[in-house]
Amino acid sequence: IQNVLATTHTVTGQPIKLSPKPEIRVVTYELAPGKRLPVHKHPHQRLGYILEGSVDLIDVATKKVTRYHMGDMIAE
To answer: For the whole model, what pTM was predicted?
Structure first.
């Protein structure tokens, strides 16, 4: 067993909260190289695992850019 991520907060410092009826859903999401997503918010925290390449996450409040690489886990 190898821990990939253990955290109580998201990458922007928000505490992880479980909904009254928690559900685990695992999905894959592929972004083409250079693809930019519009600014958005998720109704619940999400976990992301980078399978290949890298992705930049921009904190809208602080403008801080963090790059995640293959093998990194993100708590959004």
So the answer is: 0.74
